[in-house]
Specification:
Order of helices and strands: HEEEEEEEEE
Number of strands: 9
Helix content: 10-25%
Mean pLDDT: 81
Strand content: over 45%
Radius of gyration: 22 Å
Distance between the termini: 40 Å
CATH class: Mainly Beta
CATH architecture: Beta Barrel
Shape: elongated
């Protein structure tokens, strides 16, 4: 028990020493449909931890199609909380290349109301939750000691568990997605 306490105390002391020397900032990504907010922590010139956060909503309306007298209205809410861990190398004085991975928790809620002629509206709620892993390669240009502009390319793997309720029915389904994505990120360091 004393060994465990000593090890925990040693790790906390090392982390506190690095945290005092760390540089903190805030960043925002530009993406076509929505963006992420980043909180970069440069523990050293070669190591970065970067928590991130995204919340987005979308309203969807569709009208009746000829021959099919139904209409759908829906809302989608997406919450993503994650962090990235990166190693970095300084290629030139003002360009930094970094590599690592992002991991995150996803919570997606899809609420649809389906209306059909002559029938009462039916509400479908689909709750999805899961995780996302994305090996990432990025670069950033340092304008000065406070501002950087960079880009990232990532391959992501996403696994969601669906918990769908419709009327009195209930079903559980798992879904997986993968692909590539890219971001432009503007960061400000305090």
């Amino acid at each position: 028990m004393k060994r465990e306490n000593t090890a925990i105390l040693l790790v906390l002391m090392l982390a506190t020493g690095n945290a005092a020397a760390a540089e903190y900032g805030v960043g925002l990504s530009a993406k076509s449909d929505n963006g992420l907010v980043y909180f970069p922590i440069d523990v050293s010139p070669r190591f970065r931890i970067e928590p991130d956060f995204r919340y987005s909503t979308e309203d969807v309306q569709s009208n009746s199609v000829p021959g099919v007298p139904t209409a759908t209205a829906g809302d989608t809410e997406i919450l993503e909380i994650g962090t990235g861990v990166f190693g970095a190398s300084l290629s030139k004085e003002s360009i930094r290349i970094y590599y690592g991975a992002r991991i995150g928790y996803l919570d997606v809620k899809i609420m649809n109301t389906i209306s059909a002629d002559g029938l009462p509206p039916r509400r479908i709620v689909d709750n999805r939750y899961g995780y996302r892993i994305a090996p990432t390669l990025g670069f950033e240009y340092l304008f000065n000691q406070h501002f950087t502009l960079g880009g990232e390319v990532a391959y992501f793997y996403e696994k969601l568990h669906d918990n769908e309720r419709f009327g009195t029915g209930h079903s559980k389904v798992e879904s997986e997605r993968n692909g590539t994505e890219s971001f432009l990120i503007l960061r400000y360091f305090f």
